[in-house]
Amino acid sequence: MRIAMLGAGNVATHLSKALIKSGNPVVQVWSRNNQNAIELALQIGANSIVDFKDINQEVELVIIAVNDDAILSIANQIPKREGQIVVHTSGSTALSVLNTHSSSGVIYPIQTFSKDVDLDFKKIPLCIEGSDDETQKLLFNLAQKLCDSVNIVDSSARLTLHISAVFACNFTNYLFAIAQELLEKSSLSFDLIKPLIFETVNKIAINLPENVQTGPAKRNDEQIMAKHLDILRANPESQEVYRLISQNIVKKHHQPKSTVK
Ligand SMILES: NC(=O)c1ccc[n+]([C@@H]2O[C@H](COP(=O)([O-])OP(=O)(O)OC[C@H]3O[C@@H](n4cnc5c(N)ncnc54)[C@H](OP(=O)(O)O)[C@@H]3O)[C@@H](O)[C@H]2O)c1
To answer: First CA to last CA across the chain, in angstroms?
Structure first.
């Protein structure tokens, strides 16, 4: 399958490389900043384009891997061609934003991508949705060449998946960053808590997260939480996050008593 990639960021980079590895050449790359398109095109042996009108007639699949807010506008600028499938890679954008195209779909990878961080695409679960049975089957078959877990997920379920991913990945990473900053302020290495982070994640491989919650809020150790909140006064944003999460943990594990003030 010949592919045009619109976008040259994190997802576009990893997905393009995986597609090529699976024998599906990405032949054209577009990005808002043409320099980024040139750089990705050079890496993968494709051509860069500056105008959507230049998308090849022979291209069978156009992938929109840009910021969610720009998907609709880009979809509307892509020339409408019978037999050319247009997909996006977003978790929270409905398939219907592509309905000006006769065949459309979604390839949503449940993973966190950073351009320069390598990962094994085979292990990434892919969520597929197609505008009709034939398109969905085609996308499903393509996805099976990319990874070991291909799932048919509609727009509404995909939205829930994305919200879960924001909690599980984006928010935890933000919390790691708070921890890192606190440690560095006291000249302590972030490496010291890495075994703790890894064990937290390893534990949930075979346990439900709610069954392995630990910490002052789980024990409802009020004096410790008050001490932590006091120390965090110098850092009001982190203090607010600490308070809110602690209140919620106490509420969940000590209902109806909720004491964090
Ligand atoms: N990153 C992830 O972990 C992840 C995981 C699953 C799904 N996704 C989804 O994949 C899509 C791409 O995410 P990403 O992380 O790859 O993004 P990214 O690395 O930030 O790259 C964004 C791309 O969109 C272009 N762009 C940004 N704003 C634009 C605008 N207003 N108009 C046109 N183009 C614009 C950028 O162009 P220039 O840089 O050239 O200006 C760049 O090519 C999103 O729908 C996202 O929800 C991301």
So the answer is: 58
Question: Which helix (DSSP H) or strand (DSSP E) does residue 181 occupy?
Answer: helix 172-185
Tokens of 154: 């509609």
**Cα(234)–Cα(248) distance, integer angstroms:** 23
Other C-beta atoms lying within 10 Å of the C-beta of residue 61: 23
User: From the DSSP assignment, how many helices (H) and strands (E) are in the chain?
Assistant: 10, 8
> Residue ranges of the chain with pLDDT lower than 70?
256-261
Residue 130 in 3-state DSSP?
A: strand
Ligand 1 neighbourhood includes 6 CB (under 6 angstroms): no
CA atoms within 13 A on the CB side of 121: 22
Domains of the chain and CATH, by start: 3-153 (3.40.50.720), 158-253 (1.10.1040.20)
What pLDDT, on a 0 to 100 scale, did the predictor assign at position 92?
97
| Distance in angstroms (rounded) separating the CA atoms of residues 133 and 240 | 48
The predicted pLDDT at position 258 comes to: 52
Closest ligand 1 atom to 37 CA: 40
Nearest atom within ligand 1 for CA of residue 169: 3
- Output the pLDDT for position 255: 75
For ligand 1, the distance from its centroid to the CA atom of residue 176, given in whole angstroms, is: 23
